[in-house]
Specification:
- The protein is an alpha+beta fold and about 240 residues long.
- Helices cover about 35% and strands about 5% of the residues.
- The protein has seven helices and five strands.
- The chain has a five-stranded mixed beta sheet, with helices on one face.
- The longest helix is centred in the middle third of the chain and has 21 residues.
- It is globular.
- The chain starts with a helix and ends in a 6-residue tail after the last strand.
Amino acid sequence: MFRRAVRSFLAIVMLMTGAVVGTVATAGTAHADGCYTWTRTLSQGASGADVTQLQIRLGGYPGYGSVLAVDGSFGPATTAALKRFQSAYGLAADGVAGTNTYNKLYALQDDDCTPVHFSYSELNRCNSTWSGGAVSASAAKANALRTMWKLEAMRHALGDQPIAVTSGFRSYACNDAVGGASSSRHLYGDGADLGAGPHSLCTLAKQARYHGFRGILGPGYPGHNDHTHLDHRSSQYWSAPTCGI
């Protein structure tokens, strides 16, 4: 909270400075963010690393049964996802990423780029290095970050009540220790098991269908009556028979 307060103070100072000297800043530059600062307005047809960063944060807004590609190309799917994000937070849903959109994203992320309600430590209780899984440590950590942004969107859609992650990344050793499947998505860093809390396991499984998860396993699927599992496998597979999925 302190870091976000400091960033908000700096943003006010920068805006006041711009007003005094009469400069006009490119959209996004009025806010110096500890994680990532966008420096231009983005809309359909744009491409680049800044589009990639935007897509990571919009990953939870692809629409029912869809997945937003993180490819650095601002196409119709990114426009639609952005409109859903803007609408979810009460912004003008114009599909154009400018100052208001960026300021909302800045408020939603910590300096390590994780969304404010989730953390790397929450997505990795196995080790501190993210190593020993099916992909490189950097890939596993990047996959976990994308999962967290999807969970942030899901959390907001469910009334901003907490979502408990009970298991995230696992090395092969950690996966074997808990009896995980040999091909578990936890080994890739994009798997997350959710426990019941403010929401039932079925509510979590049903809501996940709107937030970019190709894999959804929940109550009624063997071994999943006490948690809902979400992941980003290569093709869609949803099974939570007790929940009607």
